[in-house]
Design goal:
The complex is a heterodimer. Chain A has twelve helices and 19 strands. By secondary structure, chain A is of the alpha/beta class. Chain A folds into three domains: 75 residues, Thrombin, subunit H, CATH 2.40.10.170; 281 residues, Rossmann fold; 88 residues, no CATH class. In chain A, helix 4 crosses helix 5. Chain B has four domains: 68 residues, Elongation Factor Tu (Ef-tu), domain 3; 74 residues, OB fold (Dihydrolipoamide Acetyltransferase, E2P) (Beta Barrel); 236 residues, Rossmann fold (3-Layer(aba) Sandwich), CATH 3.40.50; 128 residues, Orthogonal Bundle (Bovine Mitochondrial F1-ATPase, ATP Synthase Beta Chain, Chain D, domain3), CATH 1.10.1140. In chain B, helix 3 links the parallel strand 20 and strand 21. Chain B is an alpha+beta fold. The chains are: A alpha/beta, B alpha+beta.
Chain lengths: 469, 587
């Protein structure tokens, strides 16, 4: 139900924050795109936020500075906001609204896609499966990422999430595609949302240095850009990703960082609309809004290609119960949590294993995807580490000497596990990660390994190491 | 039909100027695409419509068309095996992979109908007039609950579209009513029944922690509150796959698309433990994922329970899984916010509690209008923000359900699934269901259950002490309690949802497992009396075998062997069974 674009000039009655109030002299539909041109000749993007018989309320996604009531021209696009996409996007750098900022020419468009996307019917989805190797043991071995999944990283201010993002950008690959690491099959769409200049520069350099240009597309929304644009940046990146996945049939990994900046912008815009806030001033629809982004991960039946999401967010005050991580965790298929204590001890990546989880791990690991004993190994490491953490609490009260022989074995295991399994120098293949995992289990008495079968123990852990006898 | 003109659009709420009267809660169609909506407020000269679909592109001047009836769904035997949106529109038909506003395309296949009434006979409201074959079984074709009279014509046995007239009835008032295999029913109105019955048999779920420890009755309701990552969805999916209801209505309300896709891929592959047919044939999936329109999420819960009542009226036992009622409550809050209503607790509207009551009260075991017995069991997941069990949705839900299965974050972090906490959870049904278990393999069910729960309670107390003093510092009797509690936890409460052997644990297997564990506990306590150290008991080979019993022991014979091994292990400890209990009889 699209209409032809119409230009209105001089109908502007009021500008209030990001909102423009226009007299309705032409037809306009709710949520349709608007271009606003001021005296300075710059074009700003907006959308119809509400419309009644007398007036049109336009929400501007960019700065209203320099706009005047008399001289502002408004173009009603007659259709929702779209992004022109084409194969030339790969290797390029764009801003948060999808304009090139690398000095190159505009992208030759093969189609225009709605930036809001459309919900995939649950029946048309293919359940995610097949393993993606990230090179990070804490993810690959313990909380595996699966094609079509959305797995966020819960970080905090000052934690090395940027370094993790860069490592992912460089090393993530599809083991199924085997040797074509740089091949056509895999692509990365990276959206920096409200990130500082220095960080943006770091990502740009990382893309160039790693030769990732053949597979990477950057969307950079800087901290200095208007907040309303942050709402667009992840949608633009996802629209590009959907094109690459569902039209060009590539397996796309979308990294969104930092989602906390996105939510802050949403709160700011919502307050600007005068909406009733729910928890901590965030709008009541924060869950639905986040879902409209995260749910764009997935695979479609009969279509090659997939979208896998790794959103990164910083938990305000390291609080996992804050609405942003909380609602994210309710939508995503698991989470990888970073830990300040591990980071302080110089361990990288500082993944806090116990609260981390990949819900879809079972669909991408084991027999047909990785290694038959991979799931059992991960479960055993989890159980043993949980016990080691308990033993630590005990040891901190009664002293290491006061705990039982078995608990002391757990203490040794816990330290080793953090230093040698979770922490790592360079990227590891899954096989290397598994070797590290089996080695850690050898520190424990054999009869403590309840989550392994006798055969698994015999094959990987080896002979009896009875403790305390 | 009355019409109105749109005057204001701002998201899913639309205002319009009526040209003829509209009724409150009347279903309407909005704009060229015929977007489905409902009148939620009436004023002189204005109606406010909540639209259940995306309103992008909608402009002032668009028409609003009234339907003259409240929001209703079309109920048909053909729903079985299908996947629908929150308003019961099929998602499984057509090739378009995306949800688009407007009526979805696609035709349902015809249904094989056999009449069971003849012209001249009297058709009573809610009684069957024929039979329909769907998904490998025969279900009655029911007259709508308000249609009764003398059968004038009835169609011959063959396949019909579910909207074709197959029976004509002369109502008592004299006018002729055409009856098809499908009939509409308003979603917010419970379907009438002849009588409500006492719910005195359990819904067998195949989950030990539920069936044996925290049972729910057929026709009752239960809530599953849990923070994210505690396994709510896996739990509900296991129940959908494993429980012994005749029909499953699974409502994915504001949840993940990928999970539903997983369920949809799995159900056709799995076998119904009772009929041997694919599980999908007994299932109706209502999918309104988190990125589908919010307002329809609000309706989806009612849609689900209405479908359940429809199959209940056929004399079937139906279980509804609603994942998650919190998303439904949030939709309620969002729509309420857009209407500018005064917010109550945590921004939820003040009527949250009564809406929850309306929903859970629709759980019932009944005698249907047709005289058969049917039931609707409601199982609702609750997703409290930051796992807070004091928040409004959890608190109000607790008031209306008979069992609460609290999912525990600590257990989930240790990958202990199902993460239902045996102590903070409860079931008010235990007493009423005891006779059933007594007749089904657990003669001492109540005592054993109480004993094990007491053991876990004591362990909770001791674990706190052990954390301060170290377990070694406890006397042997208390150390034994820790050992015993671990056995109950690991051997009975732990159950892998994905295990082909243990994923669904039938009552007989549950009884066998409980029996061997209870026997071990008896013998361990006797051995302790003889002076055997708890550490000697944990070193027994049969202890380790019990811990892994869920995965490794299958079949009656294997349990008998295991029981024998337990007896032998303790005999070898030198304190023969039956000689230690008396105190003086021991050493």
């Amino acid at each position: 139900m699209s209409r032809l674009p119409v230009v209105l000039s001089g109908g502007l009655a009021r500008i209030d924050g990001p909102l423009l109030f226009l007299r309705r002299t032409a037809a306009a539909g709710y949520n349709e795109a608007v271009e606003v041109v001021g005296d300075d000749g710059r074009t700003r993007l907006g959308r119809v936020a509400a419309v009644d018989e007398e007036r049109i309320v336009v929400e501007l996604l960019e700065s209203t500075t320099n706009l005047a009531l008399a001289t502002t021209r408004v173009r009603l696009m007659g259709e929702p906001l779209k992004l022109a996409v084409g194969p030339g996007m790969v290797g390029r750098t764009f801003n948060g609204v999808g304009k090139p900022i690398d000095g190159g020419p505009p992208v030759a468009a093969v189609e225009a896609r709605r930036v809001d996307g459309l919900a995939i019917k649950p029946v048309a989805r293919v359940a995610p499966s097949e393993f993606i190797e990230t090179g990070i043991t804490a993810i690959d071995l313990l909380d595996s990422l699966v094609r079509g999944q959305k797995l966020p990283i819960f970080s905090g201010g000052g934690l090395p999430h940027d370094r993790i993002a860069i490592d992912l950008l460089r090393h993530a690959r599809l083991p199924a595609a085997g040797d074509d690491r740089e091949g056509e099959g895999f692509a990365v769409c990276f959206a920096g949302i409200g990130i500082p200049h220095a960080t943006a520069e770091r990502f740009r350099r990382a893309m160039e240095a790693s030769g990732g240009a053949a597979r990477t597309t950057l969307f950079l929304n800087l901290a200095s850009d208007p907040p309303a644009q942050r709402l667009l940046a992840p949608r633009v990146a996802l629209t590009a990703a959907e094109y690459l996945a569902f039209t060009e049939h590539r397996h796309v990994l979308v990294i969104l960082t930092d989602m906390t900046n996105y939510c802050e912008a949403l709160r700011e815009v919502s307050a600007g609309h005068g909406e009733i806030p729910a928890r901590k001033g965030y709008p009541g629809y924060l869950y639905s809004d986040l879902a409209s982004l995260y749910e764009r991960a997935g695979r479609i039946r009969g279509v090659a290609g997939s979208i896998t999401q790794l959103p990164i967010l910083t938990m305000p005050g390291d609080d996992m119960s804050h609405p942003i991580p909380d609602l994210t965790g309710y939508i995503t298929e698991g989470q990888i949590v970073l830990d300040r204590d591990l980071a302080r001890r110089g361990l990288y990546p500082p993944v806090k294993v116990l609260p981390s989880l990949s819900r879809l791990m079972k669909d991408g690991t084991g027999d047909s995807f990785t290694h038959p004993d991979h799931p059992a190994l991960a479960t055993q490491l989890y159980a043993s580490y949980a016990r080691a953490v308990q033993a630590r609490v005990l040891a901190s009260v009664v002293g290491e000497e006061g705990v039982s022989e078995v608990d002391r074995a757990y203490l040794r295991f816990g330290d080793h596990f953090e230093r040698e399994v979770v922490a790592q120098e360079g990227p590891r293949t899954l096989a290397e990660s598994m070797t590290a995992g089996w080695a850690a289990l050898r520190l424990l008495p054999r009869e403590e390994l309840h989550r392994l079968s006798g055969e698994q123990i015999a094959a990987h852990v080896g002979g009896d190491r009875e403790v305390g006898k | 039909m009355s019409t109105a003109r749109v005057t204001w659009v701002g998201g899913p709420v639309v205002r319009a100027r009526p040209e003829a009267p509209f009724a409150m809660r009347e279903a309407v169609r909005v704009g060229d695409l015929g977007l489905l909506g409902e009148v939620v407020r009436l004023e002189a000269g204005e109606i406010v419509v909540q639209v259940y679909e995306e309103t992008t592109g909608l402009a002032p001047g668009a028409t609003v068309e009234g339907s003259g009836a409240p929001l209703a769904v079309r109920l048909s035997p053909g729903l079985l095996g299908g996947t629908f949106d929150g308003l019961l529109r099929p998602l499984h038909l057509g090739d378009d992979p995306f949800v688009r506003p407007g009526a979805p395309a696609g035709a349902t296949p015809p249904l094989a109908f056999t009449p069971t009434v003849r012209p001249g006979e009297r058709l009573v409201a809610g009684h069957p007039f024929g039979e329909v074959a769907v998904g490998g079984r025969t279900v009655p074709a029911l007259a709508p609950p308000r249609v009764a009279g003398e059968v004038v014509r009835v169609a011959a046995a063959r396949a019909y579209q579910d909207d074709a007239t197959v029976c004509t009835v002369r109502a008592d008032a004299g006018d002729e009513v055409e009856v098809s295999l499908a009939h509409p029913w308003p979603v917010r109105e419970p379907r009438p029944v002849a009588a409500r019955l006492v719910a005195d048999a359990p819904l067998i779920t195949g989950q030990r922690i539920i069936d044996t420890f925290l049972p729910v009755a057929r026709g009752a309701s239960a809530a599953i509150p849990g923070g994210f990552g505690t396994g709510k969805t896996v739990m509900l999916e296991s129940l959908a796959k494993g429980c012994d209801a005749d029909v499953i209505v699974y409502v994915g309300c504001g949840e993940r698309g990928n999970e539903l896709a997983g369920l949809l891929a799995e159900l056709p592959e799995l076998e119904d433990p009772q009929s041997g047919r694919p599980l999908m044939e007994r299932s109706v999936i209502i999918a309104n994922t988190s990125n589908m329109p919010v307002a329809a999420r609000e309706a989806s819960i009612y849609t689900g329970v209405t479908v359940a009542e429809y199959f209940r009226d056929m004399g079937l036992s139906v279980a509804v899984m609603a994942d998650s009622t919190s998303r439904w409550a949030e939709a309620l809050r969002e729509v309420s916010g857009r209407l500018g209503e005064l917010p109550g607790e945590a921004g939820y509207p003040a009527y949250l509690s009564s809406r929850l009551a309306d929903f859970y009260e629709r759980a019932a075991r009944v005698r249907t209008l047709a005289g058969t017995e049917g039931s609707v069991t409601l199982l609702g997941a609750v997703s409290p923000p930051s796992g807070d069990m004091e928040e409004p949705v959890v608190v109000h839900t607790r008031r209306y359900v008979r069992a609460v299965w609290v999912l525990d974050t600590e257990r989930a972090h240790a990958r202990f699934y199902p993460a239902i906490h045996p102590l903070t959870s409860y079931s008010e049904e235990a007493e009423r269901l005891a006779p059933w278990w007594q007749a089904h393999g657990q003669p001492h069910w109540e005592q054993v259950r109480t004993r094990m729960l007491t053991l876990l309670e004591e362990e909770r107390r001791l674990a706190r002490m052990a954390r301060i003093l170290g377990a070694e510092a406890l006397p042997p009797a208390q150390r034994l309690i820790l050992v015993e509690a671990r056995l109950v936890n690991e051997a009975l409460l732990r159950q892998s949802a994905f295990s082909p052997v243990d994923g669904r644990c039938p009552p007989a297997r549950q009884a066998a497992m409980v029996r061997v564990v209870a026997r071990f506990l008896d013998l361990a306590e006797e051995a302790l009396e003889c002076g055997v150290e708890p550490e000697t008991i944990t070193a027994l080979e049969s202890y380790r075998r019990l811990l892994r019993m869920g995965e490794e022991v299958v079949g009656e014979a294997a349990f008998a062997t295991l029981e024998e091994a337990v007896e032998q292990d303790f005999t070898r400890l030198g304190c023969p069974a039956g000689h230690g209990g008396g105190g003086e009889g021991g050493r």
